[in-house]
Sequence to fold (262 residues):
Amino acid sequence: MRPVLAYLLPPRPVVPRGEKEPAIQTPSTTRSPKPASPSRAFLTFLAAAGFVGALLLTPALRVDTQLTSSVSSEPLPEEPFPDALVDSSSLEREVVARYDHLPLAQILRRTADPAIANRVARAIVKEARELQLPPSLLAGVLLTENSRLEPETVSSRGAVGLMQVMRFHAGVFDCDSDDLLQVEANICHGARVFAGYLKRTNNDVRSALLRYNGCIRSRATSSCRRYPSKVLRQAESVRHQLLLYLPRNRANAGNIGSTPAS
Fold:
């Protein structure tokens, strides 16, 4: 038989009748001194240690997973790709191919007699085709030299006609006439003089324009040096007006292309 374990208490003493049971003496409890409160530096250190521990024990989040889950899986609509930049010189050729000299004649009529403007425009387009030059560039030279389109103008230096051609150039080129006062002959000579300077300067338009204006080193002045910019501004204005004869979307594409110097 398994013994039964019991908690045995000490026997209670027998107290005679009439006497009080003696009080149980309990040890006196003395109050222990109050422990000192921890310093502020220790509490700060303890809080910092707890924060670092929490960071270390927190599992890292997969940022890429959250981003991909938040982005819609549907493909984004494709934006229309802009058309390739169009060279404005090619658009100018397109205008001339479509309408021949008529748009240029309309532009020149604003400052000249319609009959003269028509002859000048026809001659410029003819020479531009033969010399493979932009008509706007030849028109820029002519308008800089003779903005009123007066065929019989002679300068103090002896330059003659619409493109202010010097007399010693007369008869040098294969033009229909040597008369520099004639519209077509003057433009034929002037265009070929300029084309010759382009060839000698390796198609440097500004250098060719300086030579056309007689801006050599010994006679170069500040106004002489500004001549190429004046011509190119005139040429750019003419080209811009020519491109207006194209459909609007084609004309807008030409505004970001090359300048008449090309």
Q: What stands out?
A: Residues 1-10, 26-30, 61-73, 75-85 have pLDDT under 50 and may be disordered. The domain at 88-253 is CATH 1.10.530.10 (Lysozyme). The CA atoms of residues 158 and 177 lie 19 Å apart. The first helix runs from residue 40 to 57.
